[in-house]
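Propose amino acids for all 144 sites.
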């Protein structure tokens, strides 16, 4: 994403994505973060590197409504302010779920401990495969 989107362009793009059936079925809680650039609020610089947060949805420890029992550690990787995967490291990961991003756009989501895989192109889901554990088991039993 060389050019940043205007607020109007972002709003129009978001409406199109939200109308997409595969987008609605996606297991990614973070898909809404596509096309966004993140900055360190204290330093005013684009985020780069890894950030680990304890989250319950998007609530952080200490936020009103935060539920410790539902909370999980989420690891985010950034490059120049965008969620980004490098060296085979997911840009977003938490137990049983990881996401491959390229400069602020989703490329692949692996969810349900590997039982679901989603493939994305230009920020739009193009294919979702489910029940992969069952398929792999059946293929192994049939010698494929």
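Proposal:
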């Amino acid at each position: 994403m060389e050019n940043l989107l205007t607020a109007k362009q972002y709003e129009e793009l978001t409406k199109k994505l939200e109308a997409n059936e595969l987008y609605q079925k996606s297991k990614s809680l973070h898909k809404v973060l596509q096309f966004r650039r993140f900055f360190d609020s204290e330093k005013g610089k684009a985020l780069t590197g890894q950030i680990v947060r304890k989250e319950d949805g998007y609530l952080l420890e200490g936020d009103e409504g935060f539920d410790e029992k539902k909370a999980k550690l989420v690891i985010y990787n950034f490059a120049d302010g965008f969620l980004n995967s490098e060296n085979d490291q997911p840009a977003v990961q938490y137990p049983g779920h990881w996401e491959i991003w390229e400069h602020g756009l989703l490329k692949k989501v692996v969810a349900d401990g590997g039982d679901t895989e989603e493939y994305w192109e230009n920020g739009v889901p193009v294919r979702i495969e489910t029940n992969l554990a069952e398929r792999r088991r059946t293929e192994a039993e049939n010698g494929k």
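The chain has a mean pLDDT of 88. Helices lie at 7-19, 21-25, 132-141.
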